[in-house]
Amino acid sequence: MVNFIRQIRQDLYRTPQSILQVLFVFLNLMIAFGLLSSNHPDLWQAFLPILLIGLSCGIVSLSLDQLFREDWEDGSIEWLMSEGKSIEIYILARIITHWLRLGIPLVLFVGLISGFASYLLLFGVATATLTLMLLGAVGSALCLNTSANNAILLPLLTLPLGIPIMIVSMGSLINTSVSGGAFPYFLLQGGLLLIACALSLVACPFALRLSLR
Amino acid sequence: MIRRLTHPKFLLRKGEALLPWSMAATGLFGCVGLLLSFFFSPPDYQQGESVRIMYIHVPASWGALSVYTFMAILSGWGFVTRASLPHLITKAIAPIGIAFTLISLGTGAIWGKPTWGTWWAWDARLTSMLLLLFLYLGYWTLVTLFDDEEKALSAGAVIALIGWINIPIIKWSVEWWHTLHQPASVFRLAKPAIHWTMLAPLFSMAMAFAAYGFSIAVIRIRTEINIRKIRSHQLREGINQNEKLAA
């Protein structure tokens, strides 16, 4: 546990530039959309939540390649495995770090843009990004050692897995009036998060070992 | 028993023994099915003649789903027994699944134009089928991108298994989204219990598709095994030559 927290803290100190770049892309897009839609405020209000969740999922999937890349290239992963340390804890710490430095800023941005009006939206963005990172970590680990560029591969692997997450978290915003309350959606998002966590912690170590072999 | 079943030689022999039969079954069921569907089944009272697309569309969709299920089962089998053959078979049958999915989507679009008035709609089933195609393509890209074939097959098996767990989630979420979002009104086909004059060609075509898939699978598996044989043979030749040169 101490190691776990220490690793997260160390990783947070050396946040790579590419994460900031991805966040700025998000900000630029939101400014552009906001300007373009200033003539139709109603349309903007109606589409804003979906747009925000969709864009944050897109941003997260763009950043997934960074998840293990650095540790892979400097040999940390290989060292961890040869030491016989628990790779699951490393993976979980890595994903949580990634979420802290990308997911939390995204939640804050989304809150700023939507004026902190809807806690559902913030919760949706937070869980959707974390679930997507957990599932995408498997794809990211599998792609580490491919010879060709994984620009096509990674989205192809993560896109079908990400669709249910996006649907559920968008559903919480749109269908509340229909289904009577947002509570079922909370449960669904939490359930998907747990499934993703269980799957990821089984499949990710396997994928990393495979890439290393 | 299982050890013997997974032995390549045994499997290849059984498969090849069945191959002529399955090819004959493809031809027979295909001819009977096409005859029945074109001449002996009635046109639909609403859709007219275009309902005959169903006899290709539905078996192809069944095929697409069952091939993916087979892939997931084989991948799980490969992980449990640590044998390489199940992974090899998974790779060999993936293109069949891709072909079935494409046929299903293509005929669905052709059928959708006269029936619903549109080539494509973001309907629950259509969307899940499209995502199935993406799952297949992801698997195929992953398997073909690796240098090391052994590694590629294991990596593909991981994705096949995760994708298989995800299929019901996709199906359920998409369907649920759709039914909550707008109740089924346009896409509801008034379908009474299907009459046997339509069921017979459907069943026959499904058998033809299954037999066709089996035949192609046997041929593809044979090719994959032969490629490996040739490769190991070449390797051995190379080693022998090196030893001769060294001596």
Succession of helices and strands of chain B: HHHHHHH
DSSP, total strands of chain B: 0
Average predicted confidence as pLDDT of chain A: 81
Q: Oligomeric status of the shown chains?
A: heterodimer
Pick out the low-confidence regions of chain A: none
Succession of helices and strands of chain A: HHHHHHHHHH
Tally of distinct domains of chain B: 1
Instruction: Supply the number of helical segments of chain A.
Output: 10
Helix content of chain B: over 70%
Overall pLDDT of chain B = 83
Topology:
The complex is a heterodimer of chains A (213) and B (247).
Chain A (H helix, E strand, L loop, with lengths): L1 H12 L3 H20 L4 H23 L2 H8 L2 H8 L3 H28 L4 H25 L9 H22 L1 H4 L3 H30 L1
Chain B lengths: L1 H4 L2 H33 L13 H28 L3 H32 L7 H22 L3 H33 L14 H51 L1
Description:
- The complex is a heterodimer of chains A (213) and B (247).
- By secondary structure, chain A is mainly alpha-helical.
- Chain A has one domain.
- Helices cover 85% and strands 0% of the residues of chain A.
- In chain A, helix 6 (87-114) packs antiparallel against helix 7 (119-143), helix 7 runs parallel beside helix 10 and helix 8 packs antiparallel against helix 10.
- Chain A is globular, with a radius of gyration of 18 Å.
- With 247 residues, chain B is mostly helical.
- Chain B has helices at residues 2-5, 8-40, 54-81, 85-116, 124-145, 149-181, 196-246.
- Chain B starts with a helix and ends with a helix.
- The model of chain B is unreliable at 180-188 (pLDDT under 50).
- Chain B has one domain.
- Helices cover 82% and strands 0% of the residues of chain B.
- At the A-B interface, helix 7, helix 8 and helix 10 of A face helix 5 and helix 6 of B.
